[in-house]
User: What shape does this take?
Amino acid sequence: MDEIQAKLELLEHQLNPRAWLAELQGKAPLLGPALGLMTGIALQHTLALPQITWIVLLVVVLGSWFILHRLDRLTLENMALLAVLSMGSLGGNLILHHTHRDPRHIAHLVQSEPRMLTLQGRVLTTPRRQVTDTGQETPRHRTQWTLSCHSLQSIDGWQPCNGRITVTLYDQFPELRRGDRIQLNGWLRALRVPTNPGQFDRAAYLQRQGIVAQVTIKSNLACDILSHAPTGSLVDLHQRLIDRAELLHDLGRPEPDDLGLSRALLLGRRDSLPSPLQIAFRKTGLLHLISLSGMHIGILATLAWSVGWMLRLLKPGKAWITAVSVLVFVLIVPPRSATLRTAIICWVFCLGQMLKRPSNSLNQLSLAATILLCIRPTQLFDVGWQLSFSCVLSILLFFPRFNSLGQRFLNHWLPPVTAWPLRGLYRLLRLIIALLCTGLSAWLGGAGILLFNFYTLTPLSPIWTLLALPWVYLLFSLGLIKMIAGLFSTTLCHGLAVPLMGLEQQLAHGVQSLAHHVSGHWVVGRISGVWVILYYVTLLLMLVPRHTYRRLKNIAIGVIWLTLLTLLTWSAYRNDHPIAPRITLLDVGHGQAVVVQQPNGATQLFDAGSLYNPAVGEHTINPFLNYCGIDHLDAVIVSHPDRDHLNGLSDVLCQTPATVIYTPAPFVERLSPYLQDCPSNKLPPIHTLPQHWSLGDDLYCTTLWPGQANLPSQDATDNNLSSVVRVSYAHHSLLLCSDIEQPAQKQLLYQSPHLDGEILLAPHHGSSGTLWPDFLEQIPHDTLIVSGSNPHALSDRTGVIRTCEVGAIEFQWVQTGASDLCFGTKTRTR
Assistant: This one.
């Protein structure tokens, strides 16, 4: 009878949502306040409410608490509700404080045009140095850091100011270090907003970190170090610790170290990783393996706890070793959300072990979120922060269910064995199922955020993570042992470097093979945020207690999942199949990249380069292709082998395979050296640019130059032999003139005297020094476009549209003769 009554009480408990909420509140009392804090931050960020709103809310909360206390009705549920409301008020006030700018803030000096300023301040971040090969004798150096402004020189002398800016110095400055107090003369500019669809909004990201502007400096002569960080200060000691860790890591490794996987895993520095390797990790969904996350600190904590176990310490001693190890690691690596979140959880766990108090994982996660948001509330809108917490929360919520199903499935097909030879295999299978369930749970939590921000899905990433996890564990563990060994024995450190590099090569080769053959990379393209919300609502619906409206819940979940899958498939199809030919001229600075999409899904790419941006393929062209749902290029046309026309092509081909590369006959044998960064298995065949070709849907391409070019030897340069292609559809045409100069322009007009183009892409990026004065006049056109970084190009002509001013230019052609020309936030209809 007692057993039946207990089952009835359990059933009533499961059917009563208030009992379920009360149980959740008892296990994780900090979850409600954390959600209240996030809600307050989101509301203030979205609605920009006056501060009096949050003050009134706080007064109402305090008044309610006082009244309920006097009436003796201050129950746990009421206290939880009041805590949620008070944290919401705190969140709104935190955003107001973070966005407040006093009259001396540097943000008030930012204007639409750059202005010269003389500033003094302190270097906040370790200067990041880059060297770009521009194809000339002297490479281009660039040094970047964040500066905390202290004073500003004006006509009345030095005036105090505050605020953070990012500084870019186009020169070398090796003696600059974090903590130095400097004076600089540079151009103050507004943060550059994204100018291409799908491009990462770096300006918004920096503003959320409190950085409001940027300063550019041409020479290190305009930057003076007033004083270095005091020896023995916290900043100096911290920097010395970072330098020491990097020295220990590099000890025994050859120079230069081209792979850099262990540097990414151990130190969080991905700058040295080759771009094709990063793209391979991204396509397989394994980017979290080379981005410091909770997994890495989890491995470190496990190793530290094992050391305490080998020393036969009690739990408090193990906890001390683990907490200190994690602290040292956090001081060495960049302070990212995932790292700090896991470190806080680890420290809380260790504190519980020292005090012999139990802890709840959901409560620890809520505490970590609250601490980080109180430090910087705008983290809530960072993709990294959202992914970090959504994945861990999904593991906590879904892993028990998935693992229970998996273990029951294993027990059904392979009952537990008692024979000792098979017992280890059975435990290994249980561990594999648990790891797969963990990866699946994390993927479900982050899939919606990844799809909305990066337009792709990698549903096979839990499987690839399981396969790569042993190599990551060995690589991370061996790297830590090598760095610790370097403190005592240089010889041992050199000996450990050999197997460490071998593990790196095997991991890199395996990931690149997966990316090429079976990555499971689904490019969906841009989607509506409503679908993402519906996705997460469905996940929450799956968490409803099992016995509550079970049949209705299962039907609703099935219908929603089917609807979401249908919408995603349709969205991917429509993104890649426009209703009319769509042509986009991307803003790549001094360079050229033109994407032509056709209604049948065929896509062509004309050039892919930028002179001063070596990562144009990874940071500009690839995000645009993902944004449009393009997962294959039918043809790539390279006008000529100049860096500003093809230095991003390797990164593009690593992510998006192409059928063929076309280039003028003189350059067929010369393209391969420029594409050496692209793996050989991803390099399509290179053929001579045909005279005529079409990929269907009545869109035709015609090569007008070089063809039978007959130029004197002194004029037969790469620029003059670059291709001129006419793209036509119905009554519309686009003329791509590449970099032809005066000799080629004259010959082209001589061979094609009736040449025209509704839209004309100016030759050689609008350079007046290489333009024949009569060239543009003799070619009838409605729109003249300049793809370059010079805002004064062809300034003597009216109606010129420059990508550096308006961003990417997109237009579509229809059969009726009308066309839409879109750029930036403006639209022209002709």
User: Anything to note?
Assistant: Residues 486 and 781 are 68 Å apart (CA to CA). Confidence is low (pLDDT under 50) at residues 821-830. The chain is about 50% helix and 15% strand. The first helix runs from residue 2 to 15.
